[in-house]
Structures are given as C-alpha cells and as structure tokens.
Amino acid sequence: MSQTEKTRITVEIYGNQYIIVGSESASHIRHVALMVDEKMREIHSKNPALDTTKLAVLTAINAVNDYVKIKERLEELEKEVHK
C-alpha cells in the first residue's frame, strides 16, 4: 500500500461504531480495534461504575504505559546489540 493510499474501515469498540482511516491494512485496524475493545471490557469488569469517558482514558493510559515499557526495553536491547 503506498503512503497516499488510505484504508477506511468501520469498527465497533465498546458498543460504538467508528470509521477509522489509516495507512495500515484493514486486518491490522480490526486487530487494534479488537484489542482496544477487549481492554475497555477488561477494565469495565473491574470498575463497573466508570463512565465511558473515564473508561476510555484508563484504556489509553494502559496502552501508552505498555508502549513506553516496550520502547524502553527495545532501547535497552539495542544498546546491548551495539556494544
């Protein structure tokens, strides 16, 4: 897929439909949306009183936390390889 081509796909996350436009494949976008949906449902099962906005923010915090940990680990591994 060239950089100018965009995938447009409708996904469902936590009972709401969203149109996602991106350069990734449709299967990638569906996979990411499924992961977000699963994380929101997991957090909701532990905190059923949360409204959707707070649930979405906690989901984003969890995702970024995971990203930061993985990025830090990658940097550590890259340093080891370049020694």
TrEMBL record:
The cross-references to InterPro entries, in alphabetical order and at most eight, read:
Bac_CellDiv_Activator (IPR053712), Cell_div_ZapA-like (IPR007838), Cell_div_ZapA-like_sf (IPR036192)
Q: Which GO terms describe its biological process?
A: division septum assembly; FtsZ-dependent cytokinesis; septin ring assembly
Mind telling me which Pfam families this protein's record contains?
ZapA
- Record keywords: Cell cycle, Cell division, Cytoplasm, Septation
Question: One Gene Ontology cellular component annotation?
Answer: cell septum
Q: Which Gene3D superfamilies match?
A: 6.10.250.790
Location of the protein in the cell: Cytoplasm
Assembly:
Homodimer. Interacts with FtsZ.
Quote the function comment for this protein: Activator of cell division through the inhibition of FtsZ GTPase activity, therefore promoting FtsZ assembly into bundles of protofilaments necessary for the formation of the division Z ring. It is recruited early at mid-cell but it is not essential for cell division.
- What name has this protein been given in UniProt? Cell division protein ZapA
